Amino acid sequence: MTVTPSAAVTPGPVPVRVRTVPGSAGGLRAARKLLRADPLAGLVRLRQTHGPVVRLSSRPLSAFLVADPDAIADVLVGSHRSYRRGFVRRGPGSRGTAVQPLTMVLGQGLLTSSGELHRRQRRLMQPLFHHQRIFEYGETFAAIADARAARWRDGQRLDVHDEMIEMTLAMVTKTLFDADTDSDIVAVIRAAISENTVAARKALHAGFELLERLPLPSARRRRSSRQALDQVVYGLIERRRREGAQGQDLLSLLLSARDADTGDGMDDTQVRDEALTIMLAGHETTANALTWTFHLLGRHPEVAAALRAELDSVLAGRCPTVADLPRLPFTDAVLNESMRLYPPVWAMSRYLVEDRVVGGYPLPAGSTLLLSQWVVHRDEKWWPEPERFDPERWIGDRADPDRPRYAYFPFGGGPHQCIGNSFARTEGVLALATIARHWTFEPVPGLEITPEPLVTLRPRDGLPMTVRRRG
């Protein structure tokens, strides 16, 4: 087997052959059985038992967990052209099919595309996410968070996850489409996301496309929701084009974007795909990050008290602004630490398009690699007492300058790093500060909250908590 050099390989003996990669000796069915009961804990155990590169299955496909920060850096940055997004799915016979589950909803947007299409779209869209432009949305973020919290009553039991989903959906709908939360657009988007994102994992199974075309009730609902979503989004695109796309909402900016070399813009299909990608990435991940943040604060009152002390000192009860962000280091650290313990995207996948050395092992083309934030963020080599919620580890002398860059990667990295990471961070910190200055959340006694690793990391059965207004 031909092996391409890798930056994740140190000089020394020739790496061991692929069959000696530690881990499961069985097929994909055995790997699924191993991980079915608790995939998050199962992956952590595999890493602890076998090391930073672990074979998950060898037939009918080669799949590996990669939990070494240097190897992850090589996959995402140094040798990213040797990889594509998604999974290799095996059907009948020996040929593999590459699949990217979210294309059923998002098409070929930045979150799902690879190669030259991704590079072109990244160049076109990068100016839309300039820091100054994102900061201009800060007032909207804080105002919507404040309006959402104003609906709560002291002592009310809420599903915090539902509240955060509705709040961030309103934020992204306003900044993307310049639409208000009570518009029909929001209802259509909400229904399409609910029907399709959970089912996206089923696209990994052979035969999914056929099942999706059958007159099954669940498949009909998904098709109907996608058709309604397309009708709304294409209608907005047509209206913006007719009006000259002069607004400052992200949809207008997508329509106005031009390639610096050719002067070409995007056609309606590509604008649709990118708009929906921004919608999903900009609300789902931030909602999950805030949900887990309030969950952790409710179980660590000493951290919640330190957060309130900073907010009282800096804000004195008023709504935060973007100008306040540099003066809220502990608030920022709370969100960082929450995303370490509960990364909104708990794992990423890549598949090899050529033979390559990964973490010291030569792996064959067609192998699927699972890069798990959940696993790496819990590696005690990089994170002392990894299960402890400790925002101070991000501040001053506690911040470890020698920690590898990819020991923490909630937004991915390299050319495929989430283009909206600054958008999401600004949205998250301002929402957290806006809410926490007046409200606290108490856990429901005896209720166990279990993370559910779907496309994103949600709390299974929601997150019921009791909201208390500060005196």
Description of the molecule:
The protein has 471 residues and is α+β, with helices and mostly antiparallel strands. Helices cover 46% and strands 12% of the residues. A 5-stranded mixed β-sheet has the order 1-2-10-7-3, sandwiched between helices. A 3-stranded antiparallel β-sheet has the order 6-14-11. The N and C termini lie far apart (68 Å). It has a domain of 126 residues.
In short:
The protein has 471 residues and is α+β, with helices and mostly antiparallel strands. It has 17 helices and 14 strands.
Query: Uncertain spans, ≥5 residues at pLDDT below 50?
Result: 1-18, 91-95
**What gross morphology would you assign?**
globular
What separation lies between the terminal Cα atoms?
Answer: 68 Å
**Number of distinct beta strands:** 14
Describe the largest sheet.
Answer: 5 strands, mixed
Describe how the helices and strands are arranged.
Elements: H1 28-36, H2 39-50, E1 53-57, E2 63-66, H3 69-78, E3 83-85, E4 87-90, E5 96-99, H4 103-106, H5 115-125, H6 131-136, H7 138-149, E6 157-159, H8 160-177, H9 184-196, H10 208-213, H11 217-243, H12 250-256, H13 268-299, H14 301-315, H15 329-341, E7 348-352, E8 356-358, E9 361-363, E10 368-371, H16 373-376, H17 421-436, E11 439-443, E12 451-453, E13 457-459, E14 464-469
Helix pairs in contact: 7-8, 7-17, 8-13, 9-11, 11-13, 12-13, 13-15, 13-17
